[in-house]
Amino acid sequence: GALRRFNEILPMGGRVVLFVPSGPALYGEVDRQLGHHRRYTSDGLKQIVESAGFRVIEQSSMNAVGMLAWYVKARVTKSERLSAWDARLFDLMVPFLRIEDRFSLPAGLSLIVVGEKVKSLDSRSVKNDAASDDGHLDANVSKVRRRNRERVVR
């Protein structure tokens, strides 16, 4: 997958920065519409990064403020998309996100991970590994390209 590709092109000691959705219990139709195939746990993402030949040198959560709103949107109302009102509400939350940045919170809507390449992988060694899940990355890239073409055509 993407991490295996990064491992192939980065020199030893090279770094990768990942920004991924967090909190599997928050996963819903909005995530599917955004092209997300899953939401990660902190430990699960660390395991995937390490299995791809990287050492996690920094990992943090962000946007804990938005977790309740996302849960209501995705799981309670089972909404299928984000509205203009949702975007305005997020804009109103930005000052709170700045305050949140001052604290290290254990959970949030997103995870940020910085990994450093510590070993090269033999391409055969990751075939059955979570880090080699090409289908999700390739399908997501194709879906985003298709949506962008559809928007231009409309």
Order of strands side by side in the largest beta sheet?
Answer: 1-3-2
Order of helices and strands: HEHHEHHEH
Tell how many strands the DSSP assignment holds. 3
Q: How big is the Rg?
A: 17 Å
Number of helices: 6
What distance lies between the first and last C-alpha atoms, to the nearest angstrom? 32 Å
Low-pLDDT ranges: 125-135, 137-142
- What structural category do the secondary elements indicate? alpha+beta
Mean pLDDT: 78
Q: Percent of residues in helical segments?
A: 40-55%
Strand content: 15-25%
Shape: globular
Characterization of this structure:
The protein has 154 residues and is of the alpha+beta class. Helix content is 45%, strand content 16%. A three-stranded antiparallel beta sheet has the order 1-3-2, with helices on one face. The protein is globular and about 45 Å long.
Please supply descriptive tags for the structure shown above.
154 residues, 3 strands, alpha+beta, 16% strand
